[in-house]
Amino acid sequence: MEKQELLRVEELNVYYGGIHALKGISFSILRGKIVTLIGANGAGKTTTLRTISGLISAQNGQIFFEEKNIVRESAHEIAKMGIIMVPEGRKIFPNLTVRENLIMGAFALNSTGKFEESLEYVFSLFPRIKERLDQLGGTLSGGEQQMLALGRALMGKPKLLMLDEPSLGLAPKITATLFEKIQGIHESGTTILIIEQNAKAALQMADYGYVLETGEIALKGTGAVLFLDERVKKCYLGG
After folding, report:
1. pTM of the entire structure?
2. Cβ(209)–Cβ(195) under 8 Å?
3. Is CATH 3.40.50.300 correct for 1-82+158-239?
């Protein structure tokens, strides 16, 4: 039987200069679930994602992915294992075409067949991306750039897709479409870890959530339970 736990973080401590950004946090993500981290700016949410990705080094603690300790692995090796992040602000390559951006996302794939398969999947999710293949990434609208960033991540066939503020700067209508697409990606079997300024939408979508406060996990529970929690309502859901 396939093990349910995909990722486990144990007693993770991270420092930025003199700041203790993550103070011994522990949590796990089950295969096939959507998990959200919510909290104020500076709570440690992005630091958590960047540490899992290998972009930041932990001072101590462990990160297990499919039971392998990856805490000292390089960022590109972690991406090859199947942990892929869509960073805050999209970070597409503005001077490359849409096609070239997608090719960059497929660096970990080891066969042409898989590349074509990934490309078709991205086109099925985001038909607009297909229409703009030869356009430079920097000329796309904000919503299209976010679709491209997601599409680029999906080219690598992630086992764990990490999304950092995907709706940031997008109009409500575009955001609603984006969340539908994220739900569709999840339904196709991808496990998702999401940070989202719209905590209400994130908790409604998530199977499980963790509330981070100044580098520590203050609350945890199912998305539904946290959504109804008075402390969460007061601090993060506008009442």
Report:
1. 0.94
2. no
3. yes
